[in-house]
Amino acid sequence: MTEAIRAAVFEELATTGYARLSIEAVARRAGVGKTAVYRRWRSKLPMVIEVVSELVSSGILLPDTGSLHEDLRLMIQVVYRLLRHPLAAQIVPDLLAEAARNPEIAGTLALALRESQRESSAALVRRAVARGELPASTDPDLALDLIAGPLYWHLLVTREPVTKDYLERLARSITAALGAS
């Protein structure tokens, strides 16, 4: 039943947005009584924060491909697929807009998004440093910004098409920007 409720939260967020989301609509979509939802969460804010945080806290753990460029290509492809998902394309911009009005959402969302992906970029940088491809002073947070920023911009802001060529050029550009040797 909890999975049905979680799925319903995402579907309602994508359909109506945070501002119009209601516990009753989530319960209806999940096929449960609203008391089942209220037993887990006292209101829509903790419900949305918990459900979204759980999803993004899984992070992106990627295998070591043997080179910085290939690690970057793989991470870019994974982030691209995640952001291109129809629910993410609707939910992420809406929650970020809501975060501008609600400090609790802002703090929780920033923490969940940043912290969940920080380990992935840190592992990528550690491996590249160990292989001698990057200097030890390389900032993993900057690497994450360089990966996620352009993809977010293209997919969710400008909504321009993202081609395989663009993804490859992005990987080469990030490799160069990080100062790979």
Question: From the alpha-carbon coordinates, what is the Rg to the nearest angstrom?
Answer: 18 Å
Q: Helix- and strand-based class?
A: mainly alpha
Give a short account of the largest sheet. none
Question: Could you state the order of secondary-structure elements as H and E?
Answer: HHHHHHHHH
Number of strands: 0
The residue-averaged pLDDT reads: 86
Beta percentage is under 5%
What is the count of helical runs?
Answer: 9
The share of residues in helices is over 70%
Q: Would you kindly provide a written description of the structure presented here, covering whatever features stand out?
A:
The chain has 181 residues and is mainly alpha-helical. The chain contains 9 helices and no strands. It has helices at residues 2-16, 23-30, 34-40, 44-56, 68-84, 86-101, 103-130, 140-158, 164-177. Helix 1 packs across helix 6 and helix 6 packs across helix 7 (103-130). The protein is elongated. The N and C termini lie far apart (51 Å). The model has no long low-confidence stretch (mean pLDDT 86).
